[in-house]
Amino acid sequence: MSETILEIVGLSKVYAGGHKALDSVDLTIKQGEIFALLGPNGAGKTTLIGAVCGLVRPTAGTIRAFGDDLSQNWRSARARIGLVPQELATDMFEQVERSVAYSRGLFGLAPNATRIEEILRSLSLWEKRSEQIRALSGGMKRRVLIAKALAHEPDLLFLDEPTAGVDVELRRDMWKLIGAMRELGVTIILTTHYIEEAEEMADRVGIIRDGKILMIDNKAAMMRRLGRTEAAIVLASKQSQLPASIAALPVHLSDDGMEIIYRGGDGSGKGKAEVAELTKALTFAGIDYVGIDIKESSLEDIFVDLVEQREGESA
Hints:
Blueprint: E1 4-14, E2 20-30, E3 34-38, H1 45-52, E4 60-65, E5 68-69, H2 74-78, E6 81-84, H3 96-106, H4 113-122, H5 138-150, E7 156-160, H6 168-183, E8 187-192, H7 195-201, E9 204-209, E10 212-218, H8 219-226, E11 229-235, H9 244-247, E12 251-253, E13 259-264, H10 270-284, E14 289-296, H11 299-314
Helix pairs in contact: 3-5
Pfam families: ABC_tran
GO molecular function, one term: ATP hydrolysis activity
Protein name: ATP-binding cassette domain-containing protein
């Protein structure tokens, strides 16, 4: 079983104006995993990262990283943590290579030109090493932030909206890079509002809203538990009601009587089996249909449903 390298218990943050950015958050991260934290803007994602990285002072709760309580022994644990912030805040007039090397020195590590070159090459920045950061594109500037975070060879890396503002091609390149970092043993926590990033890369997914964790689970388990199948069966002729054998299934007749709408399943294939059963029942009942449109729910559907459900509860 993988070692726990980050344990957060009862973490809360209330700002001076009374805004509660984090509300009793519990989170455990295992070594070597990629964990994606999803949530709308203002959900508390960046505050959570800031608390772990020493940028935000928690109001309550404990944070343990690599076995150290960060309130007691912050410096040694922080040296093993890297952060790629959401904002492109860096010295725009500094050269790329010097900026990355300086970040390594901030953590008390000896200069290592070979390591800096490896990082820059892995991020396709080596050819830009002598350029001022201000001359780079937005995507390249974000790569510099990643290089700076990797300069001190962290064991735990936070990526706060790592692909915000970059095009699709660069986004996919960064996905590959994150996978390569995991191969090197780096544990990665990323926040994102691009649901496909979580689907593509994460081992586990957490959903946060209004400072509260709504759910944390393995992607596959989340799909099994909250996934569903939706199907619209277009009928050859208008129906006024459904036979009892069909009405017993999770279906309803459209207002115009021309479609049977199915919603059911659990993300494990049960839904497709029930749709097949439904079509057999229609044939047996002598009801002709001319088309079927089936859709399996995505992680995005689950995310939207959870957030909207919580919004409804708090309204």
